[in-house]
Amino acid sequence: MNPPSHTLAVFGLSGATGRALLAAALARGWTVRGLLRTHGSLAGDNQAAVPGHLVRVTGELTDDDAVLQTLEGADAVCCVFGPRAPYTDVFCAAATARVVAGMQQAGITRLLCQTGGMIGPGQRSLPFACLTALVHRQQPAVMADREAQEQVVMNSGLRWTLIKPPRLTNATTVRPVQAATDLKLGLLSQVGRASLAQFTLDAVDRADAVGARLFVKE
Ligand SMILES: NC(=O)c1ccc[n+]([C@@H]2O[C@H](COP(=O)([O-])OP(=O)(O)OC[C@H]3O[C@@H](n4cnc5c(N)ncnc54)[C@H](OP(=O)(O)O)[C@@H]3O)[C@@H](O)[C@H]2O)c1
Fold it and tell me: Of 104, 46, 109, 66, which is closest to residue 56 (Cα–Cα)?
């Protein structure tokens, strides 16, 4: 039996994780609908050789109509946005709440949301726990926003999965990804965006990923 094909709405498509997700989904023949702040921001991505299909919607994550338009016809949703350097933007909880509201309105139930291994409670080595505490002290508003984002997801009533990576890399080799609610992360833990993209797409159809706050690493 062929694996199911999906129409995936992606918020944060122009980022490094979003692009890895796009490449992996198109290679599987899926349709990807992405909300882009700037229409040309994926102009260089070559889709000619892949079976899937990309639909761009231009707009802001603060615009209900743009979010709803991105969700049209989707059967699963990925949120992979986050602040860019200097990592001071506080927008993730509000944007995720808007996506959740749009999904509820559109009757879409499957949500996968990527946050990070430093957000909220978790199993961390002592050095990684110290680094996490330091980042929380230096960026309290940003970290509180990400914790609030996780609460929005967990309280959404949707079939949600939180994906919580440590450091992301741009390694192109796809390796197995470990994932568990109690996976211990350390200072050297990392995961490649290409590996994580395959994991995320597989998780769309994994019943055991629903309602799980999954820490991941290679
Ligand atoms: N980088 C890491 O090592 C790391 C580690 C753990 C977790 N994470 C998390 O994993 C996710 C993906 O990270 P990444 O490094 O691959 O992403 P990235 O390349 O930094 O891309 C960020 C994405 O978020 C969007 N974005 C940023 N600020 C925005 C705003 N104010 N309004 C609307 N959209 C905005 C960007 O859109 P534009 O292109 O329009 O700017 C882009 O699509 C994020 O949630 C990140 O926090 C990252």
Answer: 66
Q: Are 170 and 16 in contact (CB under 8 A)?
A: yes
State how far the Cα of 32 lies from the Cα of 6, in Å rounded to an integer.
8
- Provide the residue ranges of all domains of the chain, joining segments of one domain with +: 7-217
Q: What is the distance in A from the centroid of ligand 1 to the CA of 162?
A: 15
Give the span between the Cα atoms of 26 and 29, in whole angstroms: 5
From ligand 1's centre to the CA of 2, what distance in Å?
A: 32
Ligand 1 atom with minimal separation from the 168 CA: 3
Query: Mean pLDDT, to the nearest integer, of 99-122?
Result: 98
Q: Look at domain 7-217 and name its CATH class.
A: alpha beta
Cβ atoms within 10 Å of 131's Cβ, excluding its own: 15
Residues with CB under 6 A from ligand 1: 12, 14-18, 37, 41, 61, 80-84, 89, 91, 114-116, 165, 167-168, 193
CA of 82 to the centre of ligand 1 (A): 3
The pTM of the whole model exceeds 0.85: yes
Which tokens belong to 125? 């080595």
Instruction: List pLDDT tens digits, range 115-136.
Output: 999 999 999 999 999 999 999 9
Tokens of 212: 């799980």
- Taking the CA of residue 36 as reference, the ligand 1 atom at the shortest distance is 40
